Amino acid sequence: MELIYLCIPLAPLLGAIAAGLFGKQLGRTNSHRITILGVSIALILSILVAFDTIGEGHTYNGAVYTWAVIKDFRFEIGFLIDNLSAMMMLVVSFVSLMVHIYTIGYLHDDSGYQRFFSYISLFTFSMLMLVMSNNFMQLFFGWEAVGLVSYLLIGFWFKKETAIFANMKAFIVNRIGDFGFLLGIGGILAFCGSLDYAEVFAKINELTGQTISILPGISWQASSFIALLLFIGAMGKSAQIPLHVWLPDSMEGPTPISALIHAATMVTAGIFMVARMSPIFELSDTALNFIMVIGATTAFLMGLLGIVQNDIKRVVAYSTLSQLGYMTAALGASAYSASVFHLMTHAFFKALLFLAAGSVIIAMHHEQDIRKMGGLKKYLPITYWACLVGSLALIGFPGFAGFFSKDLIIEAIQQSQLGAARYAYPLVLLGVFVTAFYSFRMFFLVFHGKERFIASSDKHGGQHTLPHESPWTITLPLILLVIPSIFAGYLLDPMVVGDFFHEAIYVNDAAHSFDPNLNSSLSQHLAVQTISEEFHGAFNFILHGISQWPFILAMMGLSLAAYIYLYNDSLAKWGYKKLHWLYNLLDHKYYADDFNQTVFAKGSIYLGKGLSVFGERILIDGFMVNGTAKAVAWSASVMRHLQTGYLYDYAFVMFGGLVLALSWFLFF
Amino acid sequence: MFDLPILSLLIWLPILGGLGVILFGRHLDSRLFALGITIISFFISLILLVQFNSASAEMQFQEKLTWVSSFNINYHLGVDGFSVPLIVLNSLITILVVIAAWEVIHYRITQYLAAFLVMEGIVNGVFMALDAVLFYILFEAMLIPLFLIIGIWGGKRRVYATLKFFLYTFFGSVFLLISLIYLYQVGGSFSITDMQKLPLAILPQTLIFLSFLLAFGVKIPMWPVHTWLPDAHVEAPTGGSVILAAITLKVGAYALIRLALPIVPDAAANLSSLVIFLSLTAVVYIGFVALVQQDMKKLIAYSSIAHMGFVTLGFFIIYQLNKDTSTAILAIQGGMVQMVSHGFISAALFLCIGILYDRMHTRDINAYGGVANKMPQFSAFFVLFAMANTGLPGTSGFVGEFFVILASFKANVWLAFLAATTLIIGAAYTLWLVKRVIFGEIKNAEVAQLTDISQREFGLLTILAAAVLFFGLWPEPVTDLMGASIEHLLTQALQTKCGGKMLGDCL
């Protein structure tokens, strides 16, 4: 089995190396063949592992090689295979394979074809290393490696000024998160003496009661401090407010990677990490409250931004931000399994939505403005139905994947005993309305209504060729993603109700439940527990869901979008006029980018300039160095007066010296 | 084979080879001759590496000849886990420098190569010297070839740069010499191992430590005695910059390990806060200064200073760890690995800048833009080394910083906090450089005429890329090499010498 585990990340890595270093020699077709082969191997082996782990219950925790041993500290590269990692491996390799196939069609004419395949295979390797890791250091390796590939892919079209600005921004903002994450890892090593998950979790209870002195006289609970530091890492990678600013800009990259990296897999690494670290987070209510507030705020505020976007990819990007907020809020409510479940369903339907958006973009000759589309239903039937399924899954329409997972999250937050839940619950509930509204605003503007594109395509090519459905390499992945976007939700039964993550996720029930006498050995959140107890099959779950607020709100959002964008848009115009301040606020993305650009980017440059002028040039070089040199020169010029050249002067001085020396020896 | 004086060979073969290049340069291809010498030296250093017993902290391969018997000065050489990796690094980098000069240096090529060969021998000697006078002489002699390299093959303001460099280092060296003479007067021996065992009161310890700090701090360079470095780099030819960044800076840090920590541990403990403050200033302050540089070489020079801050931080954080030996070992390992890694990364970055300079004859960032369009292979290398410079895991740049930050957290959260800001600041200045130089549309006609790297340049960068990745993915060979020596060092560095109850408590 060890060999299989090892082959899973290595197969895509070899593909990446082959296509990256020998892309020219291999040519286009062979490059995509070899990388697709690598990822297919990873997928097939992941399925085998899933059968073995999830089916047979075999888990694995072992080292591959020793990275370094420093006295008592062992740093190893190794794998931890349990239900959580097995599920992540399946999701990553499946979505990655879909995106590989899709790229054949999408980047057909791009000159960087081989480079792109090399990058996405390298990404798959990095992401697999991240989810399969059995220690913090390797986790951090995968964490930064996916960041690197994200950087390379956002800037894939490196001639575009916006793209190379976006990729730099993405990397630096992610680094702010990594900064916290690395300090958190430092805390883990300082208090637990190891970076191995198993060893750390075994000792984790020793953290309770320990404090870290922050300032003289002020100390914090070590557990809260470390948990918050680790979560800062998650905020960077999973784009939570205020570190969300990089994700919308990352849409400068080609659409396939928006689907793979910036929707389905990499951005969910933060969610995965917190779930993996659940024993640490469970020690700190402070951290959990903070997480829930951040998550709910992101879910609602980012959803609102989705309403005013006109770029098809940006609508989907803001919806990703909002959904990541849902997952984060669920983590805060200790509903880790619900969060990870939503992570999985979201990976499928969001990848589907992005790839469908890409299909539309190709049909429109790289026009991304939804105001210049409309009525595409008859030209792009497969894309239309795929996008419909994705949107229904996203808004949580009963029976579709997102319904099960999102309902679970909302219910978990409702039942959470933490103070933040009272703030989070209304926000995530309202978020459902917002989600439905922006999703179907986009859907109707793109596929229904008047055809607004002919005029615009005139401008570009002058040709009147009508849009047509994409080739099979693009539609096949769409169809294959439609399946889990509908049916993944029915895994609710085994995955959440069935205590699927029971070895991987730890929930401190005694601390978070109504009734402290409740059985505390389960890895289940109270709400999840309640749902599990009341669960009588998926069908009943759906019936139950239809009478609940989330469904009603979703329908209201959908209906409002249908009314405005299919029948009468005067309501939108009225709202635009009356709520102009709100529109401005949303249009400027809450001024977050302007703030960062002015305060942090410009501030750093001014600070750097100030330091190099005052510190380097004036103080050190001017005062210290040249000052010393001048002092030497000055004393030299004084000394020079002593060198008169007259013999009697020298003789006089020598005589004086002799007298001094003699008196020294005589009297001392 | 075993009886060969392998250490002496590593000193004298390059030095004599350098003289040979000058003498016979007219009659044979001086480049091939120099390359041959450096390759042989490198193989000898590999033999040293293989035969070195890393389980022992003893000085190995010792050679001892009486030099000046009346003052008990000896030609005494020996290596331990600190010396060996630096000797191998030095021998490897010199090969690269010779190859880098191949088609680039036309003016007085024989002297140019000779200077680097002599430099290699002298620096190897510094890493081996066990006699204080020998150490001092080699430590100073090292400057001569470097002055010549900058002064003869340098840029327009080379006189200013060499003068500044000379004044700075000379200023520090005077104090070093006085300290060594004082130690001889007290202990009656110039042997460094004897000095390490010499008990000393706190006042002389403090004065000696401060003079060591000044002498070695200038070389490292530490803030605020660093301003000679950017000027020297800017004026130096590519090879000079490579040696300066990859090797010369390491000599100062090595001397701290060899002399300062073991000879005056109490003073080092008492003043560790000062050194940590200076190190963190280097990381944060210099990082911001690097951000706004317009000259590529200056930017990388400042980045070097910031990275060397981690070395000194790692060495002195051990005094803030309450005798937690494991974490102290982690810290010193971090500092040492950072030195080796910085040797590769800074060499690579200066070579890259040299490659651009050879084609465009400017180092101004604004003159570049969209280089990736014309030089895709070069750009791939440049991005890799840039990422290594930002400490990306999987590259060697990560290892040292990771260890030092982990160890700092144990000492004090805020120290780790300040050290870890390099993750953000380092990424900012490095990636902004990449964005402006490598990416974008072709900026001007000069960039449009760029040609991608030649096979020779490709080979150079490949060797460094392999080293950067290898030690990033598997640093154990280096850390193993140093393990025993570091434990031995800690027994000296954490042991009081002033007769007090505990380290630094001498009253």
TrEMBL record, chain A:
Subcellular location as annotated: Endomembrane system; Membrane
Gene3D superfamilies in the record: 1.20.5.2700
Main localization, broad class: membrane
Topological type in the membrane: Multi-pass membrane protein
Keyword rRNA-binding: no
Coiled coil ranges: none
Keywords attached to this entry: Membrane, Transmembrane, Transmembrane helix
Domain of life (superkingdom): Bacteria
Residues in NADH-Ubiquinone oxidoreductase (complex I) chain 5 N-terminal domain copies: 67-117
One GO BP annotation of this record: ATP synthesis coupled electron transport
Gene Ontology, cellular component aspect: endomembrane system; membrane
InterPro entries in UniProt: NADHpl_OxRdtase_5_subgr (IPR018393), ND/Mrp_TM (IPR001750), NU5C-like (IPR003945), Proton_antipo_N (IPR001516)
Ranges of residues in domain NADH:quinone oxidoreductase/Mrp antiporter transmembrane: 133-418
NCBIfam families on file: NDH_I_L, PRK06590.1
Protein name in the entry: NADH-quinone oxidoreductase subunit L
UniProtKB/TrEMBL annotation, chain B:
Highest rank taxon of the organism: Bacteria
GO cellular component, as recorded: endomembrane system; membrane
Ranges that cross the membrane: 6-25, 32-52, 82-102, 109-127, 133-153, 165-186, 198-218, 239-261, 267-292, 299-319, 339-357, 378-407, 413-434, 458-475
Claim: Chloroplast is one of the keywords in the record: no
A GO BP entry: electron transport coupled proton transport
Keywords assigned by UniProt, alphabetized: Membrane, Transmembrane, Transmembrane helix
Subcellular location: Endomembrane system; Membrane
Pfam families: Proton_antipo_M
Single GO MF annotation: NADH dehydrogenase activity
Keyword Membrane annotated: yes
Domain (NADH:quinone oxidoreductase/Mrp antiporter transmembrane) ranges: 130-422
Chief localization: membrane
Topology in the lipid bilayer: Multi-pass membrane protein
Family membership: Belongs to the complex I subunit 4 family.
UniProt-recorded name of the protein: NADH-quinone oxidoreductase subunit M
Organism: Thiothrix eikelboomii
Taxonomy of the source species: Bacteria, Pseudomonadati, Pseudomonadota, Gammaproteobacteria, Thiotrichales
